[in-house]
Write a structure and sequence with these properties.
The structure holds two protein chains of two kinds. Chain A contains five helices and five strands. By secondary structure, chain A is α+β, with helices and mostly antiparallel strands. Chain A folds into two domains: about 80 residues, Roll (Ubiquitin-like (UB roll)); about 70 residues, DNA polymerase, domain 1 (Orthogonal Bundle). A five-stranded mixed beta sheet of chain A has the order 2-1-5-3-4, with helices on one face. In chain A, strand 3 and strand 4 form a beta hairpin. In chain A, helix 3 packs across helix 5. Chain A is globular. By secondary structure, chain B is α+β, with helices and mostly antiparallel strands. Chain B is built from 20 helices and 28 strands. In chain B, the strands form seven sheets. In chain B, strands 3-5-1-12-9-10-11 form a seven-stranded mixed beta sheet, with helices on both faces. In chain B, strands 7-15-14-13-8 form a five-stranded mixed beta sheet. In chain B, strands 18-26-27-28 form a four-stranded mixed beta sheet, with helices on both faces. In chain B, strand 10, helix 6 and strand 11 form a beta-alpha-beta unit. In chain B, helix 10 packs across helix 11. The chains are: A alpha+beta, B alpha+beta.
């Protein structure tokens, strides 16, 4: 069994993993980090999106064995010193979620999106999140939330 | 409503941010698949790869040899475990064909995905691996996939021993239908295919059973909309006493009807936990869910509408074929009946004739999917109105105005016997037309037609109503449904002044905790944050009928409101005693009881609560309780309505339709939380638009689901959906004290015909007269090719005539 060393939400773990084990199941079932969800088995829905070495990635497309040496951030590691990330606040304020099952993935994908474009248009948000499916919101308030968070991120950067 | 001063945030009509969100945006959720117990095992199900086959034998012995496998069973092995088959609670006719539906097939598999064997292993991977070691000897039987083929003479039978694929025929008729049609100036005849859809809640179904086997006690956690209904049905189907079962719906990630059911895997997990004495978890994969979680829609709708020359609607005839799939799930046969009384919609007419024939096919069972029968009805009537406008040479909105119930006419009993309590179709339509710039859009459409623009513009209308807030128990009884439609609430004051509200509803994304906190905070004059809503656990909320049919606010919310009033009445009696005044002289405002005329003689609600808690000095015979209950059974459905206008641009070279403007003006009565209501409308629109443009569950002739994963079944993403312009008119419902109506399904019900009408309107002048859903670019492109071919033919004939 491959042995991996992986840092998840700031904590480094060393584990033997079955070669076929997907990162998402390593997170959920070995580390107990159930904030990251599984929504499909074909890498379409994006519910399992995390940051993998700083870039958004669907954790069902990565083997745990491939995460050796990687740094992973999940929804559970996004808040800083107990304060929510601007995206977490904005999803709440703009009603960007209903059942909330897609939300961890949606927020993590949005973190990456804002890293690359801190002032996206509606169109750019919609295309940036095309790998993440939501069945409840019809996306409108998700778009609003990401753009509202972008404003806060920009302000944070200049202050 | 009380005369309480509305708190600045958190009262009725405010939009405080949702209480539910903190756990959801931080990942601190309790989805069923997150739950684990020491010693927990995993269940996996072997499913039939054939749509119809005799099961000659099932050999699980090799699976049992696999490492980590605790047990493996065939359907025959578990046959004695069931006290009854999977339930169908809606026998719509006395002679409905109702074949037994066992959790695991014993001798015959009837759809691809039908359970054939089950394995329990130490983890989910070992369980999945073990399935490959089960040997099943199948003998293929003829499968019947198409509904019309299924009812033709000599068709293969889904249930051979019943001798027919016809499940039932349900008729309704009112008025002189022959007279309405015989005297008509024009009869518009259309066939609409309401295609099969897959609900696709983003959380897959999952169940965990934690047993105390020695005591025959079981706790089931399950991704369900209906923990109360499920508990009763588990007792009836497994023989475990209802009192020994606790069902918990923890955080549930969407439902849309797909989790309004009693599923084979829930029963299997329970009996295996009982048999093995170990906790058991089962979680579907998405593709497994596509085969085994109920599908929606799937009707063939034949509609005839008779009109006078001036556009007056004389009568309507509707004949449906409704695909049940291979078995009847919880309310499968009733779904088209929920729509039966809504085909007349907002229109007046002399006569209405309806019949629905339910049909068995070798496919996944259908059941409730967002709107459940009403989207189908609305699609058929709103498409028909646009088609009739073309045939009559009228503007489609003028035709609707000619026929709809005017606001002075409410309450109005329709030809289908429904009494609409209130509505104002004129107001919603005027607002929508203004927001949409209807006249401007028509002018732009004309300009593009004349210019022969590559991008043609179409305008689609849907002036819908629907019946929700399910439901008056007496009406359900008259429709042969197996239960009532009431809802229960308990309101408890805690000694510290906080409030606990217990509801029999079971939310899965709707924002109940926020909305109901607002109602209670407003009524009691306490802070929104001080109200806690408890739900979704049969031990915490023992009475309830759960969440579906846009019933939560209009039924369960009213139960909460009335229980809160009852609590207040009890406290008022105590307060009067404490203030040495007559209860009749007491008023309640701003969280304070005071004596009329002497405002200084007053007592805060919290102090009255403490006084009752201490019970040191209460009126003689006063029961020192801080709890009040109410069970509300509505006297009528609620009837949200509205006008939706959709503009679609069709690229005539590629067939690509693109929604460029969508205006929805809905009237859902009084609104508790406008942000949540808008969110419900947005999500509803998305699912209705998805039916119009993107989604379709497709089977091949052998009964294989060819759209078998989320790769092949197109769930729209953010770039596929437009920005919606939403607005409201407010015509309060008169059937409940808050004047509220349901909102959860309205957007889905309204939007599908608006979109398809718009696509057709864009290309009708190019010879396209009909389009099936989804209106994919390929379908539109082909229709354009055929349309232009037929126009060329007409032109050639005309030219030939000139030369002759």
């Amino acid at each position: 069994m491959p042995r991996i060393s992986v840092t998840v939400d700031g904590v480094t773990y060393e584990d033997d993993v079955e070669p076929r084990l997907l990162l998402v199941y390593y997170l959920r079932e070995r580390l107990g980090l159930t904030g990251t969800n599984v929504g499909c088995d074909t890498s379409n829905c994006g519910a399992c999106t995390v940051l993998f070495n700083g870039r958004s990635a669907k954790s069902c497309t990565i083997l745990a064995a491939q995460a050796d040496g990687a740094e992973v951030t999940t929804i559970q590691g996004l808040a800083r010193n107990g304060e929510w990330h601007p995206l977490q606040k904005a999803f709440n304020a703009e009603h960007g979620l209903q059942c909330g099952y897609c939300t961890p993935g949606m927020i993590m994908a949005s973190v990456d999106l804002l890293e690359h474009n801190d002032d996206p248009t509606d169109e750019e948000v919609r295309h940036g999140l095309e790998g993440n499916l939501c069945r409840c919101t019809g996306y409108q308030n998700i778009v609003k939330a990401v753009r509202a968070a972008a404003g806060e991120v920009r302000e944070g950067a200049t202050s | 409503m009380t005369d309480t001063a509305t708190p600045a945030t958190g009262g009725i009509g405010d939009a405080p941010v949702r209480k539910e969100d903190a756990k959801l945006v931080t990942g601190q959720t309790t989805w069923t698949d997150n739950i684990a117990f020491p010693g927990m095992t995993y269940m996996a199900v072997l499913r039939s790869p054939m749509a119809h086959a005799k099961i000659n034998s099932v050999d699980v012995s090799a699976a049992l040899e696999q490492p980590g496998v605790l047990a493996a069973f065939s359907g025959a092995d578990l046959a004695d475990e069931w006290a009854g088959p999977l339930p169908c609670a809606w026998p719509v006719t006395p002679d409905m064909v109702h074949p037994d539906h066992w959790p695991i097939a014993k001798d015959e598999a009837r759809y691809v995905g039908d359970a054939v064997a089950v394995v329990v292993a130490r983890d989910r991977f070992a369980a999945a691996d073990a399935l490959e070691h089960i040997a099943v000897d199948y003998e293929p039987l003829d499968a019947v996939v198409d509904m019309e083929a299924a009812i033709a003479d000599g068709a293969a039978l889904v249930h051979g021993d019943h001798g027919t694929n016809t499940t039932y025929t349900w008729p309704f008729s009112n008025g002189d239908v022959d007279e309405a049609f015989n005297g008509a100036h024009k009869v518009v005849t259309r066939r609409f295919i309401n295609q099969r859809l897959i609900p696709n809640a983003i959380e897959p179904r999952a169940v965990v059973v934690a047993p105390i086997a020695a005591a025959n006690e079981f706790t089931m956690y399950t991704a369900t909309q209906v923990p109360h209904i499920l508990r009763l049905m588990l007792a009836l189907t497994t023989g475990v006493p209802e009192s020994k079962l606790r069902v918990i719906a923890p955080d549930v990630g969407g439902g849309f009807g797909s989790k309004l059911n009693v599923y084979a895997e829930e029963l299997m997990a329970l009996v295996l936990a009982k048999r093995l004495g170990r906790p058991i978890k089962w979680t579907e994969t998405r593709s497994e869910g596509y085969q085994t979680t109920i599908h929606g829609r799937d009707q063939i709708q034949d509609v005839e509408a008779a009109f006078d020359e001036d556009g007056r609607l004389r009568g309507l005839r509707v004949k449906l074929l409704a695909d049940m799939g291979a078995y009847l799930q919880l309310v499968t046969p009733g779904i088209p009946i929920l729509g039966a009384l809504m085909y007349p919609a907002i229109y007046k007419m002399d006569a209405y004739d309806f019949s629905c024939t339910g049909v068995f096919t070798n496919k996944t069972p259908t059941d409730a999917y967002r709107g459940a029968g009403r989207p189908e009805a609305t699609y058929a009537i709103e498409r028909t109105m646009d088609e009739a406008a073309v045939e009559l040479g009228m503007d489609p909105m003028d035709l609707r105005r000619r026929n709809w119930i005017t606001h002075e006419e409410f309450p109005f009993t329709t030809i289908a016997g429904m009494t609409y309590d209130s509505g104002n179709y004129e107001a919603a339509t005027d607002k929508a037309m203004e927001l949409f710039d209807y006249d401007g859009m028509r002018a732009e459409q004309q300009r593009r037609r004349e210019a022969g623009d590559r991008y043609q513009l179409g305008i689609g209308i849907s002036t819908y109503t629907e019946a929700c807030g399910i439901a008056p128990s007496r009406v359900l009884g008259s429709l042969d449904y197996g239960a009532g439609g009431w809802e229960h609430a308990t309101v408890r004051m805690l000694p510290s002044g906080k409030v606990e509200v217990v509801t029999g509803l079971s939310p899965h994304g709707q924002g109940h905790e926020t909305t109901f906190s607002q109602i209670v905070a407003d009524t009691l004059g306490v802070p929104f944050e001080d109200v806690e809503i408890l739900h979704g656990d049969t031990k915490v909320a023992p009475q309830g009928l759960d969440t579906y049919g846009s019933r939560s606010l209009a039924v369960g919310g009213i139960a909460i409101y009335k229980a809160t009033q009852r609590m207040l009445d009890k406290l008022k009696t105590a307060a009067a005693h404490m203030l040495e005044a007559s209860p009749d002289d007491l008023e309640f405002s701003g969280g304070q009881f005071s004596v009329q005329g002497s405002p200084d003689t007053a007592m805060a609600l919290g102090n009255v609560v403490l006084g009752v808690f201490a019970a040191h000095d209460l009126p003689d015979g006063y029961e020192p309780t801080l709890s009040a209950e109410f069970t509300f059974d509505p006297e009528n459905f609620s009837f949200p309505h509205g006008t939706h206008l959709c503009a679609v641009e069709v690229d005539t070279e590629t067939g690509m339709p693109q929604i460029t403007k969508y205006v929805a003006v809905d009237d859902v009565g009084n609104v508790i939380n406008p942000q949540i209501v808008d969110g419900q409308v947005h999500g509803g629109l998305a699912q209705g638009i998805a039916q119009a443009l993107y989604e379709e569950a497709v089977y091949d002739d052998a009964g294989n689901l060819t759209t078998g994963s989320i790769v092949d079944y197109y769930v729209p993403g953010a770039p596929d959906l437009p920005e919606y312009t939403t607005d409201r008119t407010v015509t309060p419902a008169t059937s409940n004290p808050l004047g509220v109506k349901g909102v959860g399904e309205a957007g889905t019900i309204a939007s599908t015909p608006a979109v398809v009408n718009a696509v057709l309107d864009a290309v009708r002048h190019l010879g396209v007269t009909d389009l099936d859903m989804p209106c994919s670019p390929e379908r539109v492109w082909r229709a354009l090719q055929e349309g232009s071919a037929s126009r060329d033919q007409v032109a050639a004939q005309a030219q030939g005539g000139q030369h002759a």
